[in-house]
Amino acid sequence: MNDTAKNQRHQQRMARKKALIDASIARADQEKGLLLVLTGNGKGKSSSAFGMVGRSLGHGMKVGVCQFLKSRTDTGEEAFFGKQSDCEWHVLGDGFTWETQNREQDIATSQRGWAVAQRMLTDPAYQLVVLDELTYLLNYGYLDADQVLDELAERPPMQHVVVTGRAASEALRELADTVAEIADVKHAYRDGVMAQRGIDL
Ligand code: ATP
Ligand code: MG
């Protein structure tokens, strides 16, 4: 095939592709608040959620972030987003379960934290709500999973919610509009590299 024929064939193929893409863009005409679930064992769940926080703030949207489980307040994300006037940031954990070693205390902390999330999930002023590491509270039974899913389903219709954490349940995946499972291919931690500022915290 000579170059002219190759160019012509490429042009025809791209024209067919454009027609398909234009048709699918025309079909995607809905606007609604989305529930996203970012799960899996690989690195990148919380940092992806914080990427959406940055995007939303860039659009002048009001954002609420609830960080469950974790207790550290020296992360780069909190230092940066916590001082943005449109972003409300709450660290709602007591530390990891293997640190607290106290189930009663973990349940009480989770329920106190969930009350903060409930306030956001019933207020349409919050256009994006991030529920970081929520899956653990559901999987350990610290919160009533059915009740939490009902509250997520009943949130304001235009509000986006991002839930992160490993091992998202089938029911949570089903309720979500977008689910991504991040695979763990390798992680520097297993080579003995400690958590690095800017990358891990
Ligand atoms: P990130 O906050 O970096 O997006 P994540 O939310 O996907 O990570 P978490 O399970 O919440 O993952 O773990 C948070 C911390 O643990 C981060 O410091 C992250 O680099 C590290 N981490 C994430 N995945 C792994 C892994 N597979 N092995 C070891 N450490 C990990
Ligand atoms: Mg995380």
Sequence-ordered SSE layout with sheet pairings:
Layout: H1 3-27, E1 35-39, H2 45-58, E2 63-67, H3 76-81, E3 87-91, H4 97-100, H5 103-121, E4 128-132, H6 134-139, H7 145-153, E5 160-164, H8 170-175, E6 178-181
Parallel strand pairs: 1-5, 1-6, 2-3, 2-4, 4-5
The structure holds adenosine-5'-triphosphate and magnesium ion (MG).
Describe the structure.
The protein is of the alpha/beta class. It folds into 2 domains: 30 residues; 161 residues, Rossmann fold. Helices cover 44% and strands 14% of the residues. It contains 8 helices and 6 strands; from the N terminus they run αβαβαβααβααβαβ. The chain has a 6-stranded parallel beta sheet with strand order 3-2-4-5-1-6, with helices on both faces. Strand 2, helix 3 and strand 3 form a beta-alpha-beta unit. The site of magnesium ion (MG) has 4 residues, from helix 2. Adenosine-5'-triphosphate binds next to helix 2.
Bound molecules: adenosine-5'-triphosphate, magnesium ion
Distance between the termini: 55 Å
Low-confidence stretches: none
Shape designation: globular
Q: Which key phrases capture this entry?
A:
201 residues, alpha/beta, Rossmann fold, 2 domains, six-stranded parallel β-sheet, 8 helices, 44% helix, 14% strand, globular, binds adenosine-5'-triphosphate, binds magnesium ion
